[in-house]
Amino acid sequence: MLLVRSVVRKMSFAFPQVPLVDIDGNGVFKYILIKLKVPDAGGNVEEKLIVRGYGDCAYHADIDDKVEAHLKGLKSSKVIGNYEAEVLGGGRIEHNPDTKFIKVYGYSQGFGKANHEDTVEILKTKYPEYNITWSNGGY
């Protein structure tokens, strides 16, 4: 767990134009965990895991399409250079801001189950005051 936290902290500094977390502020919705790779100015490849989840996306693939469009926009405006984005899996997020609670669970039929433990650690970077749990159960 300590190793995961130190890796997440390191990842947050790689290409800061792409935040670690972008999820809806309330509700139950699908999410995906993405490994993003971007070469830096020296040609070294920097990696980071990002979490994306939106209620207006009926399928996990719709989230991937939305993220891909955003990344292409960043590339065309020269905010980032070339990149590779790999969906590592998905699931669902239940987000309740009133009780400061997030639950991560389930899987994606198209991409498989994300590593929910990694997802929780990444969510904690944006929601440190929340109670965030995960479960392998559910769809």
Task: Walk me through what this model shows.
Helix 1 (2-11) packs across helix 3. The longest helix has 17 residues, at 60-76. The chain has helices at residues 2-11, 60-76, 116-126, and strands at residues 21-23, 27-39, 45-53, 84-96, 101-105, 131-134. The protein is 27% helix and 34% strand. With 139 residues, the chain is of the alpha/beta class.
Give the topology, please.
Blueprint: H1 2-11, E1 21-23, E2 27-39, E3 45-53, H2 60-76, E4 84-96, E5 101-105, H3 116-126, E6 131-134
Parallel strand pairs: 1-3, 5-6
Antiparallel strand pairs: 2-3, 2-4, 4-5
Distance between the termini: 25 Å
Shape descriptor: globular
> N-to-C SSE series?
HEEEHEEHE
Structural class estimated from helices and strands? alpha/beta
Q: Radius of gyration in whole Å, from Cα? A: 15 Å
